[in-house]
Amino acid sequence: MKNPYFSVVIPTLNEEKYVPKLLGDLVRQKTSVPFEVIVVDSYSEDETIASVRKFKDSFISLSIFNTKIRNQAYQRNYGGSKATGKYIIFIDADSRVDNRFITHLYKSTKKYKNLVFLPKIIPQEQSYIDDTLFTFGNYFVELSQIIGKPLPTAGCMIFQKDFFIFIGGYKAVDSKKFLYPDDHDLILRTRKAGVIAQYLRDISVKFSLRRLKKEGRLTVSRKYFISTIEMLIKGELQTRVKYEMGGQYYVDSHKADKYSKKKLGYYLKKISELKDQILNFENTG
Predict the structure, then answer these.
(1) Coiled-coil intervals in this record (predicted)?
(2) Contact, 60 vs 27, CB < 8 A?
(3) Predicted TM-score (pTM) of this structure
(4) Where are the alpha helices (DSSP H) in 195-260?
């Protein structure tokens, strides 16, 4: 087999309903760029592994591993240790990509020749509120790379393999205490190593809204608002916010999708004000 250019690492835990959709997207890639797929499961109780095995003959290489440790950072590191590609695409099992994702990403790595890439994140389901939330989120991710207090993109980050190994990979932080702590920690260490992540405006990863539906848009928006403020101002997360891994957590998620539009509008207004303050600071600085 020709050496893969990309290694797609997917950590899973009870993702029988979601990971087949992502794998289906990868099967439909219109590309000549060789890539391998590595699924790192943590002994799911559902049919996750069986659903993945159905794609065994659909890829040049599809590897399935099991780890006793149920931790997304650990599973990503394990997958990274098995990767043979030049770049590692770390992507969540409930994410989606279009059929030109690999091709466009390949062109970007050749164009920018960077060590770390952050794709734009868009909602899988379109609505005014969700589009607005994600627009603000993407803006702050891109801006944060410039001002030296970097934010990660939730759901997908791409690392040149040698650099990923050099900085020590993900740190297994208790994911029940902070919002995406392993992603934040890794992107901070990336910057401390002298690397500014390349934000990709023209390459999108479709983000699952199941967390918003499970916890309510107001609750999740408040978490993102607080974490964004803390990262941009203080450079680190300090507020404790709950985060759960695993598809089983999102069963009947639609039942919790009730929120106050008035309160959510308040947070959107505050985020907009923060954006304006940062723009004014840039213009006067």
Answers:
(1) none
(2) no
(3) 0.83
(4) 210-215, 217-234
Beta bridge partners of 50: none
Distance CA 234, CA 237 (A): 8
pLDDT tens for each residue of 165-206: 999 999 976 544 445 678 988 999 999 999 999 999 999 999
The C-alpha atoms of residue 250 and residue 14 are separated, in whole angstroms, by 10
Q: How many CB atoms lie within 10 A of CB 70?
A: 16
Asked if 181 and 175 count as a contact pair (C-beta separation under 8 A), the reply is: yes
Q: Which domains does the chain have, with CATH numbers?
A: 6-209 (3.90.550.10)
In whole angstroms, give the CA distance from residue 16 to residue 94. 10
Residue 269 neighbours by CB under 8 Å, 6+ apart? none
pLDDT tens per residue across span 30-86:
999 999 999 999 999 999 999 999 999 999 999 999 999 999 999 999 999 999 999
**Whole-angstrom distance, CA of residue 29 vs CA of residue 279:** 38
